[in-house]
Each structure stands twice: as C-alpha cells, then as structure tokens.
Amino acid sequence: MKGPVDRPAPGTLPLRGDLAHIALARTYLAAHYVIPQPRTIGSEPVTMKLAMHDDADPGAELPAGQTVELLDCAGDWAWVACGPEGPSGYLRLGQLAPASDA
Fold this sequence. Notes:
Elements: E1 19-21, E2 32-34, E3 37-40, E4 46-49, E5 58-62, E6 67-74, E7 77-81, E8 88-92
Parallel strand pairs: 1-2
Antiparallel strand pairs: 3-6, 4-5, 6-7, 7-8
C-alpha cells in the first residue's frame, strides 16, 4: 500500500478499524482480517444496521434466504457482508437461518 486510503462510508465495504474481510487485505489496513463464513438470512427479510443497536441507522435491506458472509459476532449481533464489495452491516444472530452441520 502506498499513501493514505480514504475510508469507505459505513455500510459499504466490510471494513472496520479492528477487522476486515480477507479480500480487502491488499487495499485496506486493519488489525485483523477474517475469512468469512457463509450463512443465510432466515425466513424474514432484514434491514442491516450501521451499528450494533436497534435504533442505529438502517443499512441495506436483504431478502429472506439470501446468502451472506458472517464476519464477526458480539453478543446477540452479527457483522455480515454480501461479499468483499459489500454492503455490510449488523443484524441480530436470530435473523440468520440456523447454521448447517455440513
């Protein structure tokens, strides 16, 4: 990397100061990079949040059954992305379909 890189807007790329999608390692600096785990949105559509609280600004809307990439969990919240280009955001773990035992 050469020189400063503009930080993307919240809810776009899966990038935080502490963690980023592994596909962004060549472009963005983060303390850690994560290999995402595929998960599926449950039976109801969801609106991602830009922060881990219920009254946070809304992000992208995702339809029921859409595959997402799980990047991090904290308490009852999951940080997910629709791929390395985003969008990304937070949702409640209960809004994801149960993980398969494959």
